[in-house]
TrEMBL record:
Ranges where the Bacterioopsin transcriptional activator GAF and HTH associated domain occurs: 12-150
The protein, known as: Bacterio-opsin activator domain-containing protein
Gene source species: Halomarina salina
Keyword Transcription among UniProt keywords: yes
PANTHER family recorded: DIMETHYL SULFOXIDE REDUCTASE TRANSCRIPTIONAL ACTIVATOR (PTHR34236:SF1)
Start and end residues of each HTH bat-type domain: 156-207
Signal peptide positions (record): none
Keywords, sorted A to Z: Transcription, Transcription regulation
Length: 223
């Protein structure tokens, strides 16, 4: 099922409320081996310098880094800290099998569209949000069609699936490689880092949804 809702997850909300004309689109999230919770997002703003200053003042993020710049939008990376990290539900969502199809942040909050495998997963996610003190306003809920390609994406988001298919079609996995990540990133109009992260996450998810159930438990000394 697909669920669309608005909730007040605090990450970047202070900055967005300082700059109400700014709109951000979540791209990727991951946790580094050092335990940092990093988030990539595109921003559209009429004053990027003011928005960057607002990010430096926002207590939910730190170390904002500009990765890619176009005339009308910029790709940033931030580390979630404070309440931004404490109230993050991303790991709980992905562990439960939810897939973020779209996540847009404005001064009104985060509007999120998520695919859940079943109603039990949705109820679990709602409980996690309540535990974090995050109420959400439901906008739309509908069943995904069995005839759409969403019924066979092995847990991949649309963006991850698109990037992985493009990489395969262009020979990225051939030996020798038929293309590189810079070329794939340019064709998809994203940064090298975003392309790399999508491919890495997509491969991890594919393994988890296909090979992982048959794997033996790893040796205890490996991490």
């Amino acid at each position: 099922m697909i669920v669309k809702f608005v909730f007040q997850q605090p990450t970047l909300l202070d900055a967005l409320r300082q700059m109400p004309s700014t709109r951000v689109r979540w791209e990727e999230s991951h946790t580094t081996p050092n335990g940092e919770m990093l988030m990539l997002f595109w921003a559209e703003s009429d004053d990027f310098e003011a928005f960057e200053a607002a990010m430096h003042d926002d207590p939910t993020v730190t170390a904002p880094r500009l990765l890619t710049e176009f005339t009308d939008r910029r790709l940033y990376q931030v580390e979630q800290i404070g309440e931004g990290r404490a109230q993050s539900v991303y790991d709980s969502l992905t562990t439960a099998g939810g897939i973020i199809e779209e996540c847009i942040g404005t001064h009104d909050g985060w509007t999120v569209e998520i695919e859940f495998p079943d109603n039990d997963t949705l109820q679990h996610f709602h409980s996690v949000c309540e535990d974090h003190g995050l109420e959400f306003d439901l906008l739309q809920k509908y069943e995904a069609s069995e005839n759409t390609e969403q019924s066979n994406h092995y847990g991949l988001s649309k963006k991850q699936r698109e990037t992985l298919i493009r990489a395969a079609e262009k020979g990225y996995f051939h030996v020798p490689r038929g293309t590189d990540l810079d070329t794939i990133a340019a064709e998809l109009d994203i940064s090298h880092q975003a392309a790399s992260e999508r491919v890495r996450r997509a491969m991890d998810i594919l393994i988890d949804h296909t090979l992982a159930p048959a794997r033996e438990d790893p040796p205890t000394e490996r991490h």
